[in-house]
Write a structure and sequence with these properties.
There is one protein chain. With 456 residues, the chain is an alpha+beta fold. Helices cover 20% and strands 41% of the residues. A hairpin with a 3-residue loop joins strand 11 and strand 12. Helix 5 packs antiparallel against helix 6. The radius of gyration is 30 Å and the shape is elongated.
């Protein structure tokens, strides 16, 4: 049996080489846990530092069947830039592939909530063929008689990522620059990289505070072959992940993952083919291990506390005729700015919501009304409200909750006379903590709406 499977692999390998196209792109069933492997635009997209390793064994009943080891890492630089690196080792029978590349991305926001990232990568690709252990039908075959050969090439990728609320859409291309290496095989053109296209779309649907669903579709292919993955993934409290999918021209894929303290991730997938070589390819396994480091964004106390305002004196001028001139208000521009900052700080510190809701508690009204009065005095001042939550619940749920809460604050100000165009909003869910989420005190500090002056 092993001899027959080796023969089958030789036939497949030679067929791939004859057309100049092998399994040039990484095959994966766990891309939802490591999206940077899909597209260089994902470099730094999460705002965290991510390190991932995965290993895939395909066709486990076939001796010498494909196996792929993949390692990548990416991080955010500043507010907009992202960088990353990929390394892949792929084996199929007598063929071995190795690639390493670096990636860079740049992100920007349109109309406050529409996020775009552009990414590009470039690197080295090597194809090595070792037919020394192959079982040959034809002793005169140029590949089998040519001995071990190595071909080198340049590999490039490009992509774009769009995110809006729970919607995510990415489009990219691998082997952007189609290249071909010279070969010493007689009458063969050598090995070439064929341009591949890929796309991914998903939508995060929070069911409640702990559960969310994510239907998603992935496309990948070349001009002569197309393939789609139709998936439904579930997330329980950002701790337990699971999903089921159907891959056209292949079969069913199931996956599961566990996140430990939102730092370590362990995932596994199993593929069950439904057609073609199902009896040989059943039991394709993939394991992924990940680390995710998210920096806290603590604010200095000095940034939160406004400077002490200047003293305002009430002046009484008394004359012989007993006429009293009382100056109730002395308006000094720098003082007014300081007072506004203090009102914003007080409103933020005293702001409370009903549990797990976007309803402002009545005890918060007084400080919000004081802020409203200051904004009505300073008619040209514009402010920014930023909503944040703690880490309880899923990321998708917390993102929606932070948005609803910051919008509730804006509605309060607008309903009391502040022009809506003067109040901008942004929401970040749990992604920018200022304290540890391991304690109740830290969680309380992370549940906040920050207020900033953006123009005077």
């Amino acid at each position: 049996m092993k001899q027959m499977t080796k023969i089958s692999l030789v036939v497949m390998s030679v067929a791939f080489l004859s057309t100049g196209i092998a399994q040039q792109t990484r095959q994966s069933n766990v891309y939802n846990y490591n999206k940077f492997g899909l597209n260089p635009a994902y470099a730094g997209a999460s705002g965290c530092t991510e390190v991932n390793f995965s290993h895939l064994n395909q066709w486990v009943k076939v001796d010498g069947a494909p196996s792929t080891s993949f390692f990548n890492a990416n991080t955010r630089l500043g507010k907009s830039w992202g960088v990353g690196a990929n390394l892949m080792i792929d084996r199929l029978g007598m063929m071995n592939q190795f690639s390493v590349s670096g990636a860079a991305s740049y992100g920007f926001t349109i109309a406050r909530e529409h996020n775009l990232r552009l990414g590009i990568s470039g690197g080295y690709f090597q194809m090595r063929l070792d037919p020394t252990s192959a079982i040959a039908f034809d002793q005169g075959d140029v590949i089998l008689d040519g001995g071990e050969q190595t071909s080198n090439s340049f590999n490039s990728e490009a992509g774009i990522l769009y995110q809006f609320k729970g919607l995510e859409l990415s489009v990219g291309t691998q082997q952007l620059m189609e290249t071909r290496t010279n070969s010493t095989y007689q009458n063969l053109d050598g090995f070439g990289l064929k341009r591949h296209y890929n796309g991914y779309v998903s939508y995060d649907i929070p069911i409640n505070k702990k559960v969310s669903l994510k239907p998603n579709v992935r496309y990948h292919g070349i001009d002569v072959a197309q393939q789609f993955d139709l998936n439904l993934d579930a997330n329980y409290n950002d701790f337990l992940y699971g999903g089921l999918g159907y891959r056209t021209q292949a079969g069913i894929v199931a996956r599961v993952g566990v996140s430990i303290r939102k730092l370590f991730f362990i995932g596994y997938s199993y593929e069950t083919p439904m057609q073609n070589l199902a009896s040989y390819s059943a039991g394709s396994h993939e394991v992924v291990l990940g680390l995710k480091f998210c920096k806290s964004d603590p604010k200095e106390v000095a940034d939160n506390l406004p400077p002490t305002p200047d003293t305002i004196r009430i002046v009484e001028q008394i004359t012989d005729t007993l006429i009293v001139e009382r100056i109730d208000t002395i308006y000094i521009e720098p003082v007014a700015v300081d007072e506004l900052k203090r009102a914003m700080f007080d409103a933020s510190e005293n702001l409370e919501f009903k549990y797990d809701q976007a309803i402002i508690e009545k005890q918060s009204y007084a400080s919000l009304e004081a802020l409203t009065n200051m904004l009505l005095i300073r008619e040209n001042t514009k402010i920014l409200l930023e909503g944040h939550t703690d880490s309880d619940g899923t990321e998708a749920y917390n993102m929606r909750l932070s948005k609803n809460r910051v919008e509730a604050v804006k509605r309060f100000l607008v309903s009391n006379g502040v022009d809506a165009s003067r109040v901008k909003t942004a929401h970040y869910g749990e992604s920018k903590p200022i304290a540890s989420n391991d304690t109740e005190e830290g969680k309380a500090r992370n549940r906040r709406v920050e207020m900033k002056i953006i123009s005077e």
